[in-house]
Amino acid sequence: MGVTERYVTGVQIGSEDEDYLNLTRGKLLPHKVILKHGQELEEEQEELAEHQPLEQEDLNFERWKRRPLPKRTLHQKIDDLKTYLWNAETNEFMGRSGKSWSLILLFYAALYTFLAAMFGGCLFCLMWSISPYHPTFNDRVMPPGMTMAPHLEGHEIAFNASDRKSWKKYARSMDEYLRSYNDGVQERKNMRCAHNGYFMQDDLEESSERRACQFKRSWLGDCSGLQDPHYGYSQGRPCVLLRMNRILGYLPGQGKPVNVTCGVKKGPPEALGEIQYFPKSIFDLKYYPYYGKLRHVNYSSPVVAVRFAGVQYDTHIQVQCKLNGYGIINDSPTDRYLGSVTFSLDVGA
């Protein structure tokens, strides 16, 4: 219709009836068009296809839907897979020629070689800039925490003195903990220190091995396991071992020894009875500072053994042992191990 309107509107048409009928039927034949101004223009135009009305079958859209592909058999799938893996006609492996595979492998080899070299260079610079013996940046040193032994079932010690099976595990844990403190091992590896101040060895070379002071197992008295291999558990008077955590370069107490105190946190105060400390209730300064495991190879942390000699039977109490000294924090609400350790004690007959 658009083509017909362009040639009909604003033009004068000849008076021949046949041309007029052909025009009204939608057929445009080669003809002369006379403009209003008197000019004549000849124009060749292709015949347009006749517009036939849609049949009913053309309105059935189901026939225009895409037909599903026929199902392929297993043999066809296997053949396609074989062709994909190796196409003998094109000499392609997995859809690529030998040249294409060579270029891809070369690209990825160069890429990963570059990444590995960059990672190795960064790691080398990092290891070159830090010291294996002490932290490079150590602006703030937190106060030490405290650990205890035995430590088997959390911080809970519960047993019956007359039941060997109930306390044997605690005695075995104490033996393992004190094995490195045997007198023979200490005399062979460490030196006997007579002074009471800090054992400073900063004048040595950075990589030189530092000497360590002896801490003998026999110094722990009734809690050493030498006189009583059951550590008082068979008598209802258990021992526990307390140790201050190691901090590289830390000087506890600012020149004064840090001491240990234990008391009842929850329960009747009189239920704990007499408390004994071995060898003393302090951590001697001669075991500090600690220079790290690479330089302080044979270092043995000092231990305070605590014996509860008069604990009441069948009374559940919660015991707290604290470090006390200058710069020590033992009442942190967020860290239960900072400067203190808490455990439950339940001794039965």
UniProtKB/TrEMBL annotation:
Principal location listed in the UniProt entry: membrane
A Gene Ontology term for the protein's cellular component: sodium:potassium-exchanging ATPase complex
Gene Ontology biological process terms, A to Z: potassium ion transport; regulation of DNA-templated transcription; sodium ion transport
InterPro entries: Na/K_ATPase_sub_beta, Na/K_ATPase_sub_beta_sf
Annotated TM spans: 103-130
Membrane topology qualifier: Single-pass type II membrane protein
Subcellular location: Membrane
Alphabetical keyword list: Ion transport, Membrane, Signal-anchor, Transmembrane, Transmembrane helix, Transport
Similarity comment text for this entry: Belongs to the X(+)/potassium ATPases subunit beta family.
PANTHER family: PROTEIN ATP1B4, SODIUM/POTASSIUM-DEPENDENT ATPASE BETA SUBUNIT
Function noted in UniProt: This is the non-catalytic component of the active enzyme, which catalyzes the hydrolysis of ATP coupled with the exchange of Na(+) and K(+) ions across the plasma membrane.
Protein name stated in the entry: Sodium/potassium-transporting ATPase subunit beta
